[in-house]
Amino acid sequence: MEWGMQNRINRLFQKDGKALFLPIDHGYFQGPTHCLERPGETIKPILQYADGLMLTRGILRNCVDPAIEKPIIMRVSGAVSVVGEDLANESVVTSIQEIIRLNASAVSMSCFVGSKYENKSLTNLAKLVDECEDYGIPVMAVCAVGKELEKREARYLALAARIVAEIGARVVKTYYCKENFHKIIDGCPVPVVIAGGPKTDTQREVFDFVYDGMQQGAAGVNLGRNIWQTEYPVASIRAIQAIIHKGFTAQEAEDLYNQIIAGKA
Q1: Does residue 149 surpass a pLDDT of 70?
Q2: I need a surface site. Which of 42, 71, 128, 151 has the fewest CB within 10 A?
Q3: 199: confidence class by pLDDT, cuts 50, 70, 90
Q4: Out of 15, 18, 173, 183, which one is annotated catalytic?
Q5: Residue 78 in 3-state DSSP?
Q6: 120 carries an active-site annotation
């Protein structure tokens, strides 16, 4: 692997090979998402605990201090909305020149495997990989999204993850499943990070799936709503960070979470 590519990947994944990415890109198709009405304010208390920040160029330019030291994962697919016909009909909306100009450490795009727009989506990924590889910028493919969420089982997730890795993604973001999650990891030759998905009912649910996913070989997580939409975002991200980088169990993470809320940690 060439130096520039390896350097950027090393910025994303810490010395233990793990990572906690914080996505705030939801507005690109949802508009002013709850708790992301003012993204810059949302991330202020929690950014220090993340290993990377995932967002669009518009939010980066207007809401994030250029003095930020965290690596940027730039969301570059879009041009669809929740009120449109089909979320899977995405295009790449950011040029390689803009990616370089804004000093992104990586880029991300959604890949709708199994959808009506599967071919367009995967062709967009291939073109993006070609452009980014020329400049040593890793591409993270976000797969099993949109209507395909109903297929959130190991067989489908493994299929989607392997396909985007075969096309050239350097990192895959996909969902956790309770049964045979390890098969997704075993069948994917690049690091897999776990997507957070919809807001859970309890924080313990998050700690449980993060811990189990890490035990089965995930390289980290990419969690947004289950951090910044919670009642205690700082306690949430610190507890998740402890699972990823300190080897905490779900119970230990919950104990830490409660201690932070009580002001004892």
Answers
A1: no
A2: 151
A3: confident
A4: 173
A5: strand
A6: no
